Amino acid sequence: MSAPRYIPKRSAEVPAAEFSTAEEAWFWFVRCQLVRREGAQLGGGGGSFQRPCDPDDVYRIAMKLSRKGVIGKEHLCVLGTFGLTGRPPDARCANEAQASRLWNEALDRLSTVLREKGIIA
């Protein structure tokens, strides 16, 4: 008896799952970047669901907002720093209060564009 063949699902058969928040989309983007650094190649849609965008789309939106002056270098620094730690800054900690404010501002501005593009619900 032969082993069952693996037949990948076509992208039309795999349901798309929007992100619920800009924060979720941002952490997903950062995780994808970390996996890329380790040598993985993203794509193929082999999971049980697919995302409504590529990780690069989240990056492009953030960079576009930065170029337009909607978010500043401080916002990007906080997004990068806390994205790598895998947690948002804690406003209750005195040394993270400013970072928390910048984090919330950046994600608020990102969420507007991400929602328009159908990336977040």
How does the SSE layout of this entry go?
Layout: H1 22-37, H2 55-67, H3 73-85, H4 97-116
Helix pairs in contact: 1-2, 1-3, 2-4, 3-4
List keywords for this structure.
121 residues; 4 helices; mainly alpha
Descriptive account of the structure:
- By secondary structure, the chain is mainly α.
- It has four helices and no strands.
- It has helices at residues 22-37, 55-67, 73-85, 97-116.
- The radius of gyration is 17 Å and the shape is globular.
- 22% of the residues are buried.
Condensed summary:
This protein is an all-alpha fold and 121 residues long. Helix content is 51%, strand content 0%.
Q: Low-confidence runs (pLDDT<50, min 5 residues)?
A: none
Using the alpha-carbon principal axes, give the shape.
globular
Alpha carbon gyration radius: 17 Å
**What is the structural class?**
mainly alpha
Strand percentage, roughly?
A: under 5%
